[in-house]
Amino acid sequence: MILMGRSLCLPSPATVQELFSVARDANIIPDISLDPVLTTFLSPDSSAALRHQYAFLQRSMSTEQQTAFSLSLSGELGGTRVTCGGVGVVALALSVLFDQIYQQVRGSTEGGLSTQRSKAKMIFGISSSSRIGWIIQNYLHLLPGIANNHEKMAETTELYDNFLKLELLDHFERMTTKKRMSSVSMQQWLTGAAVHLHMRIHQVRLHSVPLGSAESLRLSYKSGLGRLLQDYTTYLRRNIQETGAPRPRKPQTRTVSGRRQTTANISSIPNMICSNYPLFNPSLVSPSNLTDRFNETTTPKSTAEISRICKTGGSNKTFGLKVTEGSDETSVGLTSRKTPNISTAYSRDEETGTLGLLVIEPSRNVSHNVRHHPCQSPAIQQALVYRIINAQDLDQNRNFFLYPEKVIHSLLRQRDDFELKAPSRTKPDI
């Protein structure tokens, strides 16, 4: 059955899946989901998660490395016990610190352990050089050393709470009113909002702000997330573009005065001439009645000239054989390689045009060889928007700002301290 009309422009599920797989394999499918580290440590299970991480790192190190790890860690903390160390943003800060010191210990040389804490280029999936990333990284960098000082902890958290609040407000406005929407900006806002909410919750624990302050902030971010997800979906619909790979083209021919002429470059002729030039005879290629025309071309006029071409490797010339159908005319000539031959059957430009293109958003695109009818592209683009949105863990993002009352109270009741353990004598799990 021949598909007609609208049905011809509906892509098959297999075509959409193939294009989605191409984008996924090229790593251009955006991910705006909250980093699992955030959802793990900013939860009622943060204390258990931190103990598990600490024990895992201890088991993966030798006794010598465990000693270096504990010494460096206790130096950063100013002791072996951290007040509220297993809770919210403090647990998150300790988790980051554990990983940093672990990497330093495992990568240390005989020259000694570096005393400088390195700062990662990415933090929770966003760039640490972005304004939101910079605020979060610097705040978490300070917490381990001041967690046991209640007054300093409250003062620092209030300061960075204000920094992050103002930046998130500006960031939201840039995305919604100044057309700065992107996958990167979405993930930055989500990460910033999650950390900011738990900074406020920790201030409630420290009795710096009332409970209603955290609850109103949660509701504000719940509403803001709904607005941003709508704008983000619109953004994807506007930016996703797809063109299918064209079907293979037949050799191109040109018609001059009703006659079709085909030109082909025969690069092997010079080599043949160089090995057998004494036997070369132009009359074998050109009819004798066209000798005058043949002599007007750039064909070598003597064995001496052929010898000269062979000595130079014939690097700048190739033979061209032109046949005009519908006549007996045939001519052979040398053509400069530096001059493009627009009559060549398969040109390099045509080769580059055999691939389709899929664009998700600026800086995220990939070439592909998926073929389909051109009129299917709009439907494919809409289907890809749906697939990309479904690939995000949006339920988890929403749930993060949908805490029921009992979960809020559970978070506020957290008071778990964290205490370092002495290095064990067990062998590392390698």
How would you characterize this protein structure?
- With 430 residues, this protein is of the alpha+beta class.
- Helices cover 52% and strands 11% of the residues.
- The strands form four sheets. Strands 5-6-7-8 form a four-stranded antiparallel sheet.
- The longest helix is centred in the middle third of the chain and has 29 residues.
Secondary structure topology:
Layout: H1 13-25, H2 36-41, H3 46-59, H4 63-77, E1 81-82, H5 88-107, E2 122-123, E3 126-127, H6 131-146, H7 150-177, H8 183-205, H9 211-239, E4 241-243, E5 254-256, E6 259-266, H10 268-276, H11 291-295, H12 303-311, E7 317-324, E8 330-336, H13 348-352, E9 356-361, E10 364-368, H14 377-391, H15 394-400, H16 405-412, E11 418-419
Antiparallel strand pairs: 1-11, 2-3, 4-9, 5-6, 6-7, 7-8, 9-10
Helix pairs in contact: 1-14, 3-5, 4-5, 5-6, 6-7, 7-8, 8-9, 10-12
